[in-house]
């Protein structure tokens, strides 16, 4: 199931809640989710892939979307900002190694 963790933008200090794990939102709303989150290009790509695979892409993405979204956030200036135990669980789920 989806788990929440706080994330913070390095430069602006803006705080958001990130999620990882199974995406109930994607299950119900599918390719609209990236559009809701401001990822227009990703949303269009997901619509195309959903149509080309007769919906199989939609089903597969409920398991992968939150991890991919968090990875994009963390590689574009956001950092984990929850408690150390929350951050450790998120790093483990997202496959992030501490360097």
Structure description:
- By secondary structure, the protein is α+β, with helices and mostly antiparallel strands.
- It has one domain (3-94).
- Helix content is 55%, strand content 16%.
- The chain has helices at residues 24-29, 32-36, 40-52, 56-74, 84-94, and strands at residues 3-9, 15-20, 78-80.
- It has a three-stranded antiparallel β-sheet.
- The protein is globular, with a radius of gyration of 14 Å.
- It starts with a strand and ends in a 5-residue tail after the last helix.
Poorly predicted segments: none
Sheet-strand content, in percent, reads 15-25%
Query: What distance separates the N and C termini?
Result: 28 Å
**What value does the Rg take, in angstroms?**
14 Å
Spatial sequence of strands, sheet with the most strands:
2-1-3
Number of domains as seen in the coordinates: 1
**Average pLDDT:** 94
Shape: globular
- The chain-level structural class is alpha+beta
Q: How can the largest sheet be summarized? A: 3 strands, antiparallel
Written as H for each helix and E for each strand, in order along the chain, the element string is EEHHHHEH
Helix content: 40-55%
- Supply the number of helical segments: 5
What is the number of E strands?
3
